[in-house]
Amino acid sequence: MISYENVSKDYPGGARAVAGVNLTIAENSITVFVGSSGCGKTTLLRMINRMVDPTSGRVLLDGTDIAAQDPVKLRRSIGYVMQNGGLLPHRTVIDNVALVPRLNGSGKKEACRRAEEMLSLVGLDTQLAKRYPRQLSGGQQQRVGVARALAANPRVLLMDEPFGAVDPVVRAELQEELLRIHREIDTTIVFVTHDIDEALKLGDRIIIFREHGQVAQDGTGAEILTNPADDFVARFVGLQERQLRAKQVGDKTVVLDANGRATGVLAR
Questions:
Q1: CB 207 within 8 A of CB 214
Q2: Nearest residue to 241 (alpha-carbon basis) of 208, 198, 196
Q3: How far is the C-alpha of 75 from the C-alpha of 51, rounded, in Å?
Q4: Among candidates 66, 67, 60, which has minimal Cα distance to 24?
Q5: This model's pTM is above 0.70
Q6: Positive or negative CA dihedral for 145, 42, 198, 24?
Q7: DSSP class of 133
Q8: How far is residue 240 from each of residues 183, 225, 229, 244, measured CA to CA in Å?
Q9: Rounded distance, CA 88 to CA 251, Å?
Q10: Which residues pair with 218 in a beta bridge?
Q11: pLDDT tens for residues 208-228?
């Protein structure tokens, strides 16, 4: 479990990123931080692995203040996936994925075996193992990034807009892969995005932020869509555009959007 206790972050010059945030993130869930650029969601994410330290307040991991932990050891125990993958260009795919297990003391053979398992888990052919990142597509690079983040069997996986740089088709595929992976492994995922549709698709729980990390609403997708906290949330999720209605067409029930255009067919 991850807890933020009255956490604030101020930068030199007086810029305030987050102010007095209190949150608890449940184990083995996908929690999505969503909000406009500059709202503090990435700052809050990076506090979990001490890439950013709070100016005041505490971040607890399983009840322990992470400020008391060695930041290097902490980061090696937490998976981290960023938008551009962050792969080392001079290392092969398998060496990228095996890196953290090797740093944690695993032998080369054991680390490579683990890397191959993770490549299979994220849907990559192990024949790609000897290639370099530049020889992969954007979607493949992101899958390698996820495999590397999972290679050390982390209790927490942090994902900072990981699918934002790929095309919509690949993005949808990666989202489905993430949901599948989460069903297969027990890990807590904290996912940052500015895309409410991505948040609704992935999140067991969604936290919508205003500026300075202030929580506008915290709940499931269904709770947010059916009972938005205020006008800000309703506008952010595009509630007006999400008003749907059903229409019978022959023996099928078609779902129409607010403009009367078909968006899908209800399953029987």
A1: no
A2: 196
A3: 8
A4: 60
A5: yes
A6: positive
A7: G
A8: 32, 10, 15, 9
A9: 55
A10: 207
A11: 999 989 999 999 999 999 999
